[in-house]
Amino acid sequence: SPQMIGTFSVLKNLTLNHNRLSSLPEELCKLNKLETLHLNNNRLTYLPSGFGQLSALKTLSLSGNQFKSMPFQLCSLRQITMVDLSKNKIQKVPMRSEEH
């Protein structure tokens, strides 16, 4: 079940590339030790609302998905050093004044 992912509380690296994921479970956001997350080549269009709670996340790969805009949750990731949003459908990168 998708809820099971939340039990891996010490997980640091997670790779789910080349699947058919169209959404991620909210429970993923409980993995507060997660540093690297690879979600390339899926069918994602959005991130869970609590995604910004991944306080240890440094590397996030979202290449080859269906994002039309930069996910706002990225603004909450204080440790992030690399984000890959290549091969998506992003039409606009939000300016600082547009953040809410």
Structure, briefly:
With 100 residues, the protein is an all-beta fold. It has strands at 13-15, 36-38, 59-61, 82-84.
Q: Could you explain how this protein is built, in words?
A:
The protein is mainly beta and 100 residues long. The protein is built from no helices and four strands. 0% of the residues lie in helices and 12% in strands. Strands 1-2-3-4 form a four-stranded parallel sheet, with no helix packed on it.
Gyration radius from CA atoms, angstroms: 13 Å
Order of SSEs: EEEE
- Shape by Cα distribution: globular
Number of strands: 4
**Tally of contiguous helical segments:** 0
Query: In which order are the strands of the major sheet placed?
Result: 1-2-3-4
Largest sheet: 4 strands, parallel
The N- to C-terminal Cα distance equals: 33 Å
**Residue-averaged pLDDT:** 91
**Structural class, from secondary structure content?**
mainly beta
Keywords:
100 residues, mainly beta, 0% helix, 4-stranded parallel β-sheet
Could you outline the blueprint of secondary structure elements for this entry?
Blueprint: E1 13-15, E2 36-38, E3 59-61, E4 82-84
Parallel strand pairs: 1-2, 2-3, 3-4
